[in-house]
Amino acid sequence: MPRPRHREILRITPLIPGENPEFGPGDHRTTSRVICRQQDADNLGRVRELTPTEAIDLVGRFEAGQELPEQMRADVRLLGSLLGRVLQESGSPGLYDDVERLRTATIQAYTDETPEAFERAAAIADGFSIERADEVARAFTAYFHLVNLVEEHQRVRVLRERGDRPARGGTPDTIATAYERLASEVGEETALSRLQALRFHPVFTAHPTEARRRAISTSIRRLSELLVEHDDAGDNDSEGRRAERRMLEEIDTLWRTAPLRREKPSPVDEVRSVMAVFDETLYTAVPRVYRRIDDILQGENAGARAPIVKPFVRVGSWVGGDRDGNPFVTASVTRKAAAIASEHVLLGLERTTQRVGRGLTLDAETTPPSDALLALWHRLRAADEDAAAEIAERSPAEPHRRILLLLARKIAATRTRNADLAYRDPEHLLTDLRVVQDSLVAAGAARQAYGALQRLVWQVETYGFHLTELEVRQHSAVHRKVLDELRAGGARSEQTEEVLEVFRSVAYVQERFGPRAAGRYIVSFTQSADDLANVHELASYAMGPGEDLPVLDVIPLFETFADLQAAPGILAEIVSHPSFADRLEATGRRLEVMLGYSDSSKDVGPVAANLALYEAQAKISTWAQAEGIELTLFHGRGGALGRGGGPANSAILAQPPHSVDGRFKLTEQGEVIFARYGDPDIAMRHIDQVAAAVLTASSPSIERRNRGAAEAFADVAATMDVASRERFFALVKAPGFAPWFATVTPMEEIGHLALGSRPARRGLSVESLEDLRAIPWVFSWTQARINLAGWFGLGTALDAVGDEHRLRDAYEQWPLFRTMIDNVAMSLAKADERIARRYLALGDRDDLAQLVMDEMLLTRSWVERITGGELLGNKPVLQRAVKMRSPYVDALSLLQLRALRALRDTNADDPTPDAEHQRLLLLSVSGVAAGLQNTG
């Protein structure tokens, strides 16, 4: 991004020639690299290190320029100073000074547009011993973990201070304000029915985009709690010092914890990681969202009468179910994943029921039991006599309390599979809880009925006994191969047996945990109606004679550009298939269709992919309306912009008419899961924002706006589509592009990171983009500070339109275009031209490197002209966060470049990887991911 100019620029005096031995005559690198390094040395000869006073002044001016809120600035200083103490006490002499030296140099380089300052920072990074470079990379990574923590803490602080007020003077970014807006357009009755039919369905996936170890995440969470304690201490000096001492201890632990996983996590490990989010956040946060909305809508009557809000969150999971390209996800893993999730939710429900029961100390005289409650008591006592007698003795005249305590025992029996006491399904538990509720209401204790007990009811309605609705995904080509073998008869291969066992596992999970626990079956790369019909045929092969088939909702996943265009025709064909049609009728003509953002973007570039996705949604929605089908579009979005990332609420409000209709389902991946759901307050805010957008998207005014804008700017879309695809193909279809891409980014090395259980590529090598998964495609460009997957082709597309006034109008009036431009602005703001050029120089293709840089500069120019200022100028909080991080990310990027150069040079002469430089590179990958808050 452009660097701000300063009037006073520190000029540099010569170093002693030849002081850096890396530039000596024994350098065996290629001629171009030696020349580059010699130029670095020449530039370095015109700079000097800053004095301590100058360094302090420079850092102070940089930090002051970020205009941080005072409390946030204090938190950054506090945790930064504690990290400094840890580095000084680390037992590594000079480490703190070296970290400060590189930090000051990268800040100077960030604020100084002259090349000398940047070359000096690069020379410092290159001059460290490999051991010291390792330590410095770890120090900067630790710093980012702390800064990310402070930013999250500040977000929570602001959310708590703001309460239920909308963010921007009435903008409908909460459900309450969205409901009011909708009611003003369609009337109270219609608005209420839409509110009660609302659905938000996040689906957690195990794609390898969380670069942190769980031990690191746990340490950060403990620090977060200590930061709260430090806030609460206020003017209490002793409590403040106690909190700081404990933070110092925790930061020391963070520093001493190995930052990289030694082994890839297994799919079961990934299941347990997701369960941590449920245990710590979602289980309690979701009913709190319901309560907050109901409080606002009902006012003084809230808690004294039945809630208006119906549970609208459903949590799905691919973790343990997504086997597309992951050989480690087996049928056995799927069964284990379902059992682990059930264990967690049943344990939560058991404890909650006990807690609610212990609080219902209502005397039978003041709150007499209903006849139905007494009948329930007799039924429960007959099934569990000893426990009932003991509970009755402890609660002799507290009938509602006795019931809840016995219900807790039934939930425990369900968890431990005690057939004599266990519930058959969550509906029977809900029936019992409502008997208690009705009895309380009849006795005049409505606040007890709709208080803590209602939260328990919401939890059962939301999570059942399964917690997450486990979804299976498999590639259509695998189905075709297995069916060919089955139809031919003869011996069955191991792969065929495993595919069939999956259907048996789904049947098992449904039998044990209920039909909601599993049953959605996603077909990757759906290219024909036969690909969907094949799933039902495979299920019939899997189950024996006389056995019931599992209940399956087969979901097509359209991923490539061609598949998106073919989607309406495929859907029109499949609804007439007998097995598919029968299930469609059984569900009241409900249908899910999944759209893939990742592969479509990798296929034709981000601009054409976004336009194709919009067009596909519009056509599918129109078809569904004509067929009387209740459509749910399932958005396969990643965290990064190249994979459909960015603010979800903005994306929702830019969708075609009737493509949302009160239902929104999307994948949540890797670091996004912890960023959005790791903290209860942030999780509540995210759910509220997304649900508000889902409700607002169905308002007539929004639908008219989106339809009108799409028609008005159809010519702009058509021009951008063609031009962007041509530009993208000029790059990715150039001869030798794939190996060049693998050379100029750490793509190969990222495959060595123990991020997730799933392999990074489909084959043994990368000869074309088809061999590479979308996540490492995006991750690699992000690490190289180019972020190409998020913007390439947009500059050319805008240039092809050429009319700046019309493009400004599009930015103001066309939500899809505005979202695209804003997302690209964020992507470019996190890119760095000077560092990008160094990565691109690793390859011997000046033509491709120049093509990338020309497009980057053209795109930046157009985005700034359209938005009327520097990148992210209209998003000051986000802009501040990016600017505050950038020089520190630069430091890690310079260390990564050093490692990557060494690895590329080594690989040219000796295929054996340099273990030390490989470790440095992987450390820097983790650090850059933390700094940019993006992986794949």
Strand content: 5-15%
Please summarize the sheet with the most strands. 8 strands, parallel, barrel
Strand order of the largest sheet: 1-2-3-4-5-6-7-8
End-to-end separation? 21 Å
Number of helices: 41
What class would the helix/strand composition place it in?
mainly alpha
Rg for CA atoms: 29 Å
Q: Could you report the average pLDDT, rounded to the nearest whole number?
A: 87
The percent range for helix content is: 55-70%
Shape: globular
The tally of strands reads 8
Q: Are there runs of 5+ residues with pLDDT below 50, and where?
A: 1-46, 640-644, 760-765
Describe the fold and architecture.
Strands 1-2-3-4-5-6-7-8 form an 8-stranded parallel barrel, surrounded by 10 helices. It contains 41 helices and 8 strands. By secondary structure, it is mainly α. Strand 7, helix 26 and strand 8 form a beta-alpha-beta unit. The protein is globular, with a radius of gyration of 29 Å. The protein starts with 30 loop residues before the first helix and ends with a helix. 65% of the residues lie in helices and 5% in strands.
